[in-house]
Amino acid sequence: MQIIDSGPEYSSETKAEINMVYVTVLTLVATLGGLLFGYDTAVISGAEKSIQEYLIIPLGLGSLAHGATISSALIGCIIGGAVSGYFSTRLGRKKSLMLAAFLFFISALGAAYPEFLFFKQGEHSMGVLWAFNIYRIIGGIGVGLASAVCPMYIGEIAPAEVRGKLVSLNQFAIIFGMLVVYFVNWGIADGKSVEWINDIGWRYMFLSLTIPAALFGILLFFVPETPRYLTLIKKDDEALKILTKINGHLRGHEIFHEIKGSVTQHKSEIFAFGKTVIIIGILLSVFQQFVGINVALYYAPRIFESMGVHKDASMLQTVVMGLVNVIFTVVAIFTVDKWGRKPLLIVGSIGMAIGMFAIAIFSYLHIIGIATLVFIIIYTASFMMSWGPICWVLISELFPNKIRGSAIAVAVAAQWTANYLISSTYPFMMEFSGAFTYGFYGVMSVLSLFFVWRMVPETKGKSLEEIEKLWKK
Length: 473
Known about the structure:
- The protein contains 23 helices and no strands.
- By secondary structure, it is mainly α.
- The radius of gyration is 22 Å and the shape is globular.
């Protein structure tokens, strides 16, 4: 396989024809799926102790059952990512997002009231526990679907010169969804007794997810299917209409003919363009998790507490990290189409390596202080301006039209599997050695740098069809 030149980037005259209001509205609707992704992933944080008191302790179960229940949604995420290719290819991108919205809604209702139909409220039984886990897995399937199809939808709708910025908005929505649910959980619990929260309050936390899920499902009725998918199913007139509405008459027709050529010249087998593009997609997903970001997000209070920081102070520092996440994701949004994908990823890998190696040294020397927080912020900021959003940008645009659905499914399933492996092994690794744990994430950051430098092509300013020409047997 060789990489060939893919043609020139678009001129400023072409950019002027883009209907940015229309394409931005479509993007914002799609990013509600990202917001639900973040919301559903983080809602468990406020309900975790109540679930333990209401479902685990009355049954005489221990920490293993508690951990499995809290993380059960991740099983659904892996399933949802794996089947996203089937649904996005058979149902289309739009209907797959509708299915995700429906799964979010059902999961929220069921997790809030797992006794529905088969059990009495207040009943403590294995049946209720299983029902709760099943509903959380259903929500996880919705997360897995949304994590694959939302970037795909935006990538196939967006013009080349703003595609990076628009797909990066999905990562911002994920982080924003996490931030929103922290405040929602706090608002529900504020001023209430522990007994009320453990009996009723946790139900409202899950139930709150129904509002954005319903809004997402309703708004999807008013957005079109992507022109790439419409061309794949031979609805050429509809595809051309959307392309000209977004890109202008002349450029819309040009893009249509490029798409038409790409979907008729190649087979749809996943390895039709060789193995390299699939391997790059998988490694992008795996490295995004193996650098340890979800450990920093999921276990932030515990990390600070393990370093000797008071619990209240550790929660405050976690809020500071949340603000850092938002600020540096915005940095990525405004730079990805100017600087390019590769420079941001490389700079991010360097920053993450510096942050993690410093934390490893502090952990080994048992040094606790503001310096530790500074390097955690350096690490997190480096990730949020690079691997956080840019990985999703590349996954949405690297794969050729004919195999995009199935290839993204493979990459996203690999990502959720890597997420599960890293998150579940963190406590064990920390028992062995904190210095080794953070050093491992630092080594992964260095390896991610060399991977990007050697294997990942620059896609800035290129149409999806031009990127497709990069892959030639």
